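pinned: reference chain
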Amino acid sequence: MPPRFSTGRHFFNHKLLFPTDYFWQTHYLCPLKISLQPMLQVQNISFGYNEKTIIHNISFTVKTGQNIAIIGESGCGKSTLLKLIYGLYDLDEGRILWNETEVLGPKYHLIPGMPFMKYLSQDFDLMPFVTVAENVGKFLSNINSKLKKQRIQELLEIVEMTEYANVKAKFLSGGQQQRVALARVLALEPEVLLLDEPFSHIDNFRKNALRRNLFAYLKSKEVTCLVATHDSTDALSFADETLVLQHGKLIQKAPSKEVYTSPKNKDVASLFGEVNELKLSQLISIEDEDDESLLLYPHQLKVVDNGMLKVVVKQSYFKGSHYLIKAVYDRKVLFFDHETELEFNLEVTLMLA
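pinned: its structure tokens
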């Protein structure tokens, strides 16, 4: 791969349409810096509001063009981490670097936020009394109106909002406003895109197509993206790697498939749905010294005629292609998948699927 500009690469691609002070400063007033492996570096950062520490000594790196999902229960620090990476707060400890540029907070910038990044918060921050097209084009230059119009049209196609181009933002639903906000942060093709629950207000049938369109576009442009999300689909289907936060600490960072198949603990596994914690000896005959604890998702258990683990069915939940069965054993709750609904209080036996 040929070397790439360490800063301002996407501004360079559109310099005639989107001239900015940042572009002219980095490409004309300063010598070019070239990096063979551009990356985001988060180095031992800690941060707290007042006396309470929210982020505890977190470190990780992200390569250019990667899509990273940040998952964890509510209040674990996902949104705060994104804001720190963008430069909205001053760190208590540590450093954040994009290539050779240090991310600095409000103490060093009159307007917080780094110019080569874009951050989409959960409140959208749209202008309610102007049209969708005007919101999307807010940060685009007016020097070439034809190119600006083409760019707005391209972005509205990505988020499937072309038919609302001339509608004022205040008349849109929450999901529509979220799609417009996504288009606006993409307008200048940032080098790093930070998204905080970007699909939370969008209907499922629209969300799936939007995710495919958005992440395919980001990959084609090599935009580095970090997404804070509660939706495991964002992590499993679209993220190259997943970061798991727990109480402000980074407890696992790995390829998304690995996080799912080899979760560090039950809390991590539960972020992807129901999970059971069993002993191997409950499912197969094994020597005591070979016994171990297992974390099993519902699809990893099946009903058999002569299994070792006996459970009593308490509830069947229709999931479309199958049923999720809630059962009990030794006063503990267990979940497994089954093709059909099972009767209340039916006793069945299970083994590994």
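why pinned: Residues 41 and 97 are 5 Å apart (CA to CA). The chain has two domains: 4-265, 276-352.
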